[in-house]
Amino acid sequence: PLVECGAPPALAGVVYDGDVANRKVGAQLTFACRPPYQLVGRSTFEDRSIRCTMDGSWDLGDLRCEG
């Protein structure tokens, strides 16, 4: 069966850029924050993108928005 992730997590202040409808393994979205929130942390790949993983979850690393 084809593995897909659900919707990316709805976190306070977060805005996702990219094809949010693409939830297949390997899909990638850019993680950003709405003002007045500030971006903190990095993804597992040391960038600002989250990825849909083989286990059907979004890999956020420690990315988050604070404010």
Number of helices: 0
Termini separation comes to 40 Å
| Number of strand segments | 6
**SSE string, helices as H and strands as E:** EEEEEE
CATH topology: Complement Module, domain 1
Low-confidence stretches: none
Please name the CATH architecture. Answer: Ribbon
Helix content: under 10%
| SSE class | mainly beta
Instruction: Sum up the overall morphology in one term.
Output: elongated
Instruction: Kindly give the count of domains.
Output: 1
Largest sheet features:
4 strands, antiparallel
| Main sheet: strand order | 1-2-4-5
User: What amount of the residues lies in strands?
Assistant: 25-35%
Your description of this structure?
- Keywords: Disulfide bond, Sushi.
- InterPro entries: Sushi/SCR/CCP_sf, Sushi_SCR_CCP_dom.
- Pfam families: Sushi.
- This is Sushi domain-containing protein.
- This protein is mostly beta strands.
- It has one domain (about 15-60): Complement Module, domain 1 (Ribbon).
- About 0% of the residues lie in helices and about 35% in strands.
- It has no helices and six strands.
- The chain has strands spanning about 15, 30-35, 40, 50, 60, 65.
- The strands form two sheets. It has a four-stranded antiparallel β-sheet, with no helix packed on it.
- Strand 4 (about 50) and strand 5 (about 60) form a beta hairpin.
- It is elongated and about 40 Å long.
- About 15% of the residues are buried.
